[in-house]
Amino acid sequence: MGKPIDGIASVSRWRNGNRALLFVALVLCVVGAFLRLYRLDDLMGFDGDQGRDITAIQRMVETGQPALLGPGSGVGQFKRGPAYYYLLLPAVWLSGGDPLGGMYFIALVNIAAIGLVYVVGRALVSPAAGLVSSALFAVGLVPVVVSRAYTNPALLPCLTLVMVYALWRMVAGDDRFLLVLVGAWVIAWQLHDQVWLLLPFFAAAWIWFKIRVRGRMIGLALALVLALLAPFIVYETTHDAANTRLMLDYVRSAGAERAGEVGVAGAPRRVVETLWVLARAFAVPTALRAVWSAAVAASAVLLVLRFRKESSGAQVLGLYAFVPLLFALWPGPIYEVNVAIAIPLPFLLCGYGFDRLIQWQPRWRQIGAVFVALLCVINLYLQFDSLRTRSLGANSYLTTRMAVAEILARTAGQPFVLEYIVQTRNEEFASPFQYLLKRYRANVTTDPLAMRVRVYNPAELGGNGEGTLIYGIRVVALSVPQPTGENLLVKPWNLPAQADRASPPESADQDSLRLDAVSQTQTAVQRVPIEQNALYLLQFECKNELRRGEQRLFVSALDTQSNTIETYPNGAGYLCPPSAEWSQGAVLFQAPERAVRARVLLQNQGEGAVWFRNIRLQRAIQKPLP
């Protein structure tokens, strides 16, 4: 009966003896949380990547089907495991599908990283080092920027701290932490490829400290790897190792095709860019950056010079200090989230430098503490002022929500086609709007005869002043397209001479065209002049009685050399539904720059008969709605 009371008394004594530390820890958590959560719902970036990821997560919630793959790699066009989706899944589910749920989870993980910086700094160096490191990390510019980024690498600072702590525990002789190290690394790899650069650090520590691990722990670690990679392994074994092949192809071709990015000549530049990001880790103003950079550099040099004399914990920190140099091998661009595994390093180095300073001159403890506190207060104010005065961007979450609200008001429940127009053809840019419109049950359709809503980003694309401008996003609602003028198509159609011939019209009033195919593709072709940038509407009726195969209708815009500029709809063509009854179809397209002719193709790629009738290609008019 005495043990619980003794335990409570022990906790009470520890609390009474560490009230100052608890108070400081509370302040750090509050300050760090404030900088990471303030105006998060307004300023959160919600772009193509975020729309793609939240759509994949919500699909798991709605269908109950587990994801087998995660986000794609930015440098190799392959996909990794889905750990990112599973980490965000509970938060997205609890928020009812609100994208903010996932963002709050990322922010909270990065708030927890403040405490982990203290834990790691205390373990590797001393409690004073941990306190200084976590205080600087709580108000550091780059940690705050990364913690507010809705992206998979934003979780890496926390996972890296977990790995560094696990490595130190293994150095101290506790091989059970191999499971923590391996588990954190496998999860981190599924988030971003930069974690490969941690392997030389782990290997160097393994060799330097002669780490011993029992065979049982190695076996458990391998089992853990298989468990954490199970979805990815299932996909690869059922899809001919598609992503694994792409990874290997990328490794083989990187030296030849990307020599300018990963070659030896570019290595110094990448290292300098990495160090520049870390130099900005605390603050942007030149004076603060100079103080910060000098403190980090002095601490790093001191640690290297004293490496052999230092404790094993400080030596682990010394080996970690070489990780930024490994970004000489990184094949992608260098910016905050792409160097996330190195972000805790400068703060831990400053903690080490502070500890060595007070060891050398104990009376400087108070002076150094006041100096660190003053720097933190200044940086806190600068960061708060920056967040307070920051205006919304075209890709911020609030801008997207406001644009979606405008779309819903304009369409008033009527079916509409969404057009998201940017300079690139990457369709993922429309995914944030598609996700929110689906969430709000908007009547989005692909019917070319429905009204249209065009979203321009940036606003100057197609900018004729029409529609509503919302923080760089322009929303334009257009009426149902109306055909005007004469039919540009004429008879007869151009029919290739082959075994399977097209039949003449069934009758003059129906004006129908029958395409029969047995073993070869049967195509009817017609070319007509068009004007660039003009809007055209192709309307038709079709009846499909194929026994197998499919029928498609294409409209291709051609240049003066008869080269295809673009094919509509969406490059794949209109697929006539298999039915013995007539169905209506339409293709609406705007002739691109350099287009001089349109090629209309009626194609039977199956076995059986397909009929077309009332085929009309006309200029079209769509008026902006007030």
Could you walk me through the main structural features you see in this protein, from its secondary elements to its overall organization?
With 626 residues, this protein is of the alpha+beta class. The protein folds into three domains: 388 residues, no CATH class; 82 residues, no CATH class; 120 residues, Jelly Rolls, CATH 2.60.120. Strands 5, 6, 7, 9, 13 and 15 form a six-stranded antiparallel beta sheet that branches. Strands 8, 10, 11, 12 and 14 form a five-stranded antiparallel beta sheet that branches. Helix 21 crosses helix 22. The termini are far apart. About 3% of the residues have low confidence.
Number of helices: 22
Distance between the termini: 79 Å
* Structural shape: elongated
Label the structural class: alpha+beta
Major pleated sheet: 6 strands, antiparallel
Count of separate structural domains? 3
Average pLDDT, all residues: 84
Strand content: 15-25%
- The poorly predicted ranges are 255-260, 497-502, 504-510
Cα gyration radius (Å): 31 Å
Give the proportion of residues in helices. 40-55%
| Count of individual beta strands | 15
What topology does this entry show?
Layout: H1 2-17, H2 19-37, H3 40-43, H4 48-63, H5 83-94, H6 99-124, H7 127-138, H8 141-147, H9 156-171, H10 177-191, H11 199-209, H12 215-228, H13 230-238, H14 242-257, H15 259-262, H16 267-279, H17 286-305, H18 312-320, H19 344-360, H20 364-389, H21 397-411, E1 416-421, H22 431-439, E2 451-456, E3 468-470, E4 473-478, E5 482-484, E6 502-503, E7 512-517, E8 522-529, E9 535-548, E10 551-558, E11 564-568, E12 574-575, E13 579-590, E14 597-604, E15 607-621
Parallel strand pairs: 1-2
Antiparallel strand pairs: 2-4, 3-4, 5-15, 6-7, 7-15, 8-14, 9-13, 9-15, 10-11, 10-12, 10-14
Helix pairs in contact: 2-6, 2-7, 4-5, 4-22, 5-6, 6-7, 6-8, 6-9, 7-19, 9-10, 9-18, 10-12, 11-18, 17-19, 21-22
